[in-house]
Amino acid sequence: MAFIAILSAIAVVVWFYKSAITVGQSGVKWSAVGVVGYWIAWWIVKLTVVSGLSGLAAKGAFIGFIVLLLPTVAGLASVFLVRKKLLADSSL
User: Which burial class, exposed, middle or buried, applies to 20 when counting CB atoms under 10 A from its CB (0-12, 13-18, 19+)?
Assistant: First the structure.
């Protein structure tokens, strides 16, 4: 699952960089904000939700796969909200 998380983080960096360039902002700053927001959300969910649901992962392969993907999904959801906020602030 770490491979998927790393690929998602790289996608976040590219997505934020292109978004920043589109609105005339610093791509490096936006990329840093995006990837830090992603990893903070990823670790919070990994240390709280996944550790609590780890017993379910032993009951089946599919449930285990879903539980292990939860941090990545939460990280991407948080990044979506962060990008929306950055875009709103740049249009002011």
Answer: buried
pTM, to two decimals: 0.87
The helix/strand/coil state of 35 is helix
Give the separation between CA 66 and CA 92, rounded to whole angstroms: 39
Measure the CA–CA gap between 53 and 88, rounded to whole angstroms: 36
Task: Quick: pLDDT tens for 1-55.
Answer: 689 999 999 999 999 999 999 999 999 999 999 999 999 999 999 999 888 887 7
Q: How far apart are CA 25 and CA 65, in angstroms?
A: 38
Q: For the chain, what are the domain ranges? A: 2-90
